[in-house]
Specification:
Length: 274
């Protein structure tokens, strides 16, 4: 099996383009599930304080015996901890739960516009990087409505982690990201399993390649340059989602998947998450 490509972020750090996400992974099962993912070959794990499973992630990392510098670990600041001083305490708590001296990437989870603290919080983030608590800093769910205020600080995020799958491609946000060399991390990359992608053109493309609809979507993301970390509790699907480096979509196939865009979010609008 070919290895996972790495991308270089705008701060010079590298990130494995394909990882494993643990949203809605039961804290009691997290250690087992992340252990499976590491055994399958994943080295990039995406968690968040609000997922409540950082401790299980940490135990799996420790028990794996995998060298720290081979791992890429992301966690996120929850909305109720925004603010300069509070976000530092929250990061220190996350590191304690993960059992790590540093994370590779720390993100503001949502803009939380009703609180109006995102800019103040963001201005504190470079100090966490400078002190070695995180290697890179970024944001999540800052679409074209919320990213400009972040960019005005002059501190450019390494990534923006946003809902993105074939029927919801964040068309209005993408130019801002490209202009600033901010990498896209696509969350809900498979539409959270709630879109019937198998009965679209993706199903036909999958049959042509002898792959599953999920593998075709993962390939589409990789070829578009997105970072992604599909989630599954099943080891068989973890392995399937990792087995995507032995085929390639044609330009025509890529374009036919692009054409599925219909503005159809499957999850929350950032305006409404506070
Ligand atoms: P996803 O698109 O990865 O979908 C996961 C679901 O797809 C699974 O529960 C399963 O039902 C299905 N699935 C997975 N592999 C499959 C396969 N091979 N065949 C058929 N079905 C399959 O959705 P997600 O978990 O929400 O997103 C991935 C990660 O993104 C999360 O685990 C989390 O780390 C991150 N995330 C971040 C935010 C944010 O606000 N920043 C929000 C949601 C998710």
């Amino acid at each position: 099996m070919m290895s996972v490509p790495t991308l270089t972020l705008n701060d010079g750090k590298t990130i494995p383009q394909l990882g494993f996400g643990v949203f809605k992974v039961d804290p009691a099962e997290t250690e087992r599930i992340v252990t499976d993912a590491l055994e399958v070959g994943y080295r990039h794990i995406d968690t968040a304080a609000v997922y409540g499973n950082e401790e299980g992630v940490g135990r799996a990392l420790k028990n794996s015996g995998i060298a720290r510098d081979e791992l890429f670990i992301t966690t996120k600041l929850w909305n109720d901890r925004q603010g300069a001083a509070e976000s530092r305490r929250a990061l220190e708590e996350s590191l304690g739960k993960l059992g790590l001296d540093y994370v590779d990437l720390y993100l503001i989870h949502w803009p939380a516009p009703a609180q109006n603290k995102a800019v103040e919080t963001w201005e504190a983030f470079p100090s966490y990087r400078d002190e070695g608590l995180t290697r890179s800093i970024g944001v999540s769910n800052f679409d074209y409505r919320y990213l400009p205020a972040i960019l005005e600080t002059g501190i450019i995020p390494a990534v923006n982690q946003i809902e993105l799958h074939p029927q919801f491609q964040e068309i209005e946000t993408r130019p801002l990201l490209a202009e600033n060399d901010i990498k896209i991390e696509a969350w809900g990359p498979l539409g959270q399993g709630s879109v019937d992608y198998a009965s679209t053109v993706i199903g036909e493309i999958a049959a042509a390649h002898g792959k599953s609809w999920a593998q075709v979507i993962i390939r589409w993301h990789l070829q578009r340059g997105h970072i992604l970390f599909p989630k599954s509790n099943s080891r068989e699907r973890m392995a399937q989602n990792f087995d995507v480096f032995d085929f390639e979509l044609t330009d025509v196939q890529m374009a036919s998947i692009d054409a599925l865009e219909n503005g159809g979010r499957v999850s929350a609008d950032p305006a409404e998450v506070n």
